[in-house]
Amino acid sequence: MSRPGGDYFPEDDFSEFSEEAEEGCEGVVECTALVLSEAATEMDGKITLFGVLDELRVSAEGTEAAEETSFVVYAKFEGCEHAAGEERWSRFILSDGDGGILQESEEYRVTLAGAEEPATLIVRFELPADVAGGERVLWIEAVLDDETLAQTAVRVQSQYSV
Fold it and tell me: Alpha-carbon distance 145 to 3, whole Å?
């Protein structure tokens, strides 16, 4: 009997293929969340993000508030069972729309405890003073072992859009 998509019957045994795939797995890790917010806190093992951001508002240059624009980046890394216990290194890169790096965080150790327990990082960024002028888009990348796993963009402007 032939069906669209190939000839598969439940009695077919594919166990040899799954064993080969499992032997070749080096521990897949993904960044399943990359969120910007005004602040974050952790209590009783639970992380709460305050003021999730889809844009950053900066005050006019020359004011005190212009020097204090900051935000946090929250990232959640999850991996398969083969990624458990392996030490990896993560950092975050803040760049402009042309790809020029504006800031780079220090590196943080990420150790996954298997598929059931993800690793999370929260890093605070101070927006560079020269970003305050005009509207622009900033890119934030989550990098793990020198590979970009996720990125997001945020608009920067002097007033909130409505």
Answer: 43
Please tell me the pTM assigned to this model.
0.75
CB-based contact 157:55 (threshold 8 Å): yes
The residues, any chain, with a CB within 8 Å of residue 41's CB and separated by 6 or more, are 47, 48, 50
Structure tokens at 156: 């920067």
Residue 111 and residue 125: Cα distance in Å, rounded?
A: 23
Nearest-angstrom CA–CA distance, 60 and 51:
21
DSSP 84-130: TT-EEEEEEEEEETTS-EEEEPPPEEEE--STTS-EEEEEEEEPPGG
Q: How far apart are CA 80 and CA 105, in angstroms?
A: 26
Average pLDDT by consecutive 10-residue portion of the chain (162 residues)? 52 50 72 91 90 79 58 91 85 90 93 82 84 77 94 80 57
Q: How many CB atoms lie within 10 A of CB 130?
A: 8
Measured between alpha carbons, how far is 79 from 114 in angstroms, rounded to an integer?
A: 6
